[in-house]
Amino acid sequence: MEFQQLLERIVQDGVTHAKWLNTLSFMENAGARKISKCEHPVSVTLIQLKHAAEEHRHAYYLKKQIGKIDPELCKTYKADELLAPIATRQYLHSLDVKACRYLQTAFDLNKEELKFAAYLFVTYAIEVRADELYPVYQDILTKESSRIMVKSIILEEEGHLEEMINQLNEFSPDWNKHAENILTIEKELHDEWINAIAEEVTQLDYA
User: Fold this and answer.
1) How many angstroms separate the CA atoms of 137 and 142, rounded?
2) pLDDT (tens digit, 9 = 90+) per residue, 128-183?
3) Which domain holds residue 138?
4) Organism's domain of life (predicted)?
5) Under the phi-then-psi rule, with left for phi > 0, alpha for psi from -120 to 50, and beta for the rest, what region is 44?
6) Number of domains present in the structure of the chain
């Protein structure tokens, strides 16, 4: 199932749409926590603090949007309040683990350096993905005249991507070559995640 077609199907059903928003909120929150975990104990940068704060805010914003469907839905991140909960929880974690493995081999880094490199490359991959995902979602919301909007997130994610590229330029002159490998890893994990969601949504259609 095409991603756009999947989202069109998701927004048609209130409970499924609420779970989708909650799933995105979970991902943004997990991303924010991973950014914070990668912080150096004393040399944390202003931009890293900004990213963590903004990803946390996105998680909060998406969670609040659920109230426009039904304030009683998806109050936690429990499995039954997420779409494809196992794949959702594994996606970012697996990307982090596989990216660290790749970066350690490519750059021969110590523990703190590896944490920072993982922050740069994993966040870059996620921002590239967000730049694809949120505009498609917003177009569908607009077409459906939905009260839910993600335009503010789109603007901030575009800014994040630019900031990540600037930081990667400082990190390594040939960062692009390595980023392509991380993007390949991310695409495989993203496809698994979307396929798991599509499978669940298809089963709901037949329920």
Assistant:
1) 9
2) 999 999 999 999 999 999 999 999 999 998 888 999 999 999 999 999 999 999 99
3) 3-206
4) Bacteria
5) beta
6) 1
Cα-flanking dihedrals φ and ψ of residue 45, to 5°? Answer: -90, 160
Write out the chain in H/E/C secondary structure.
Answer: CCHHHHHHHHCCCHHHHHHHHHHHHHHHHHHHHHHHHCCCCCCCCHHHHHHHHHHHHHHHHHHHHHHHCCCCCCCCCCHHHCCCHHHHHHHHHHHHHHHHHHHHHHHCCCHHHHHHHHHHHHHHHHHHHHHHHHHHHHHHHHHCCCCCCCHHHHHHHHHHHHHHHHHHHHHCCCHHHHHHHHHHHHHHHHHHHHHHHHHHHHHHHHC
Report CA-CA distances (Å) from 59 to 68, 131, 157: 16, 16, 13
